[in-house]
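Anyone opening a protein record will find just a pair of labelled lines. A complete record is shown below as an example.
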Amino acid sequence: AIELANLPTPVEHTKIDLENSKIINNLWIKRDDKTNSVYGGNKVRKLEFIIADIKKQGLKKLLTFGGIGTNHGVATALFCRQNDIDCKIFLFDQPTSPSAIDILILMASFGANLKHKGSLFSTVLHFYLRQFFCRSSYYYLPAGGSNVPGCIGFVNAAFELKDQIESGQLDEPDYIYCPVSSTGSLAGLSLGCQLAGVESKVVGVRVSPSHLGPIPACTKRTVMALVEQTYAYLRKMDSSTPKIKLNDIKLEESFYGAGYGEPTGEAIKATEYFEKANIKLDPTYTAKAAAAVLKFCDDNPDKKILYWHTYNSSDISNLIDGTKFDNIPSELRYVLN
């Protein structure tokens, strides 16, 4: 791995004031919004291993994809630029919230080669067809940085949490919650907790489509597939990796709402509650996961819950470079108005 993240990220006991004077008092937050002072969030952990893998393979170009508000795209563009790697991103449409617009502008500011591909299905199709026909010159990175190297970043994160538990920074949680889209964070934490001996139940809150047409995209099976691939790789590379029976994947699917990036009433409320505790959420990922966390905390006040916060909290306003707006595809420039 290469060093991109400021680790370990802090763990904080956080009180959340709800309506009618009700208080959530059994919640801890893992502050992965603070992984990097320039641009934080969960992708930084993944990119430490992904960029190391790119360099190991001697490649100079990367292709990935995401929505026009993809935090993965921003982090990948930033750290590719810092490591002299050309970054191309295929983009699909999503609701144009203010945060999504800021993300699009940031990707352009970081010099990413942005290509608009329309629908999610069309974007995925273009990505995998390109990988099939032009494999050699690019490093092909799935959305969210959720390949085996990226997943290992979150296996490591579970060991980091284990150290924080052992040093008394928090008791071992009964449950760990995180948002799930491209599956890498959930897969890595699920595997990592088993390998580290953390008994917490890891629960992913699905915030993206379960299927693209007939193709599974965010399901228990797709998460488990990445867990199995990563575990097999770790066993191959290090014979001291213990032999374990992999746990079932826990996926909460009732907070997704009408679609990817479409806000829900519960998510809007969660954003307001967390804002009072000085935690910023985004409507696509973290707000829906936070809504699930608040419901579970409220229903289970005797349980200790850790919410793994994956959204960047660094100030991005000074990163925007207006001279780079030409990098935004013409068919997407309407969002700037």
About this structure: Residues 144 and 182 are 5 Å apart (CA to CA). DSSP finds nine helices and 14 strands in the chain. The radius of gyration is 19 Å.
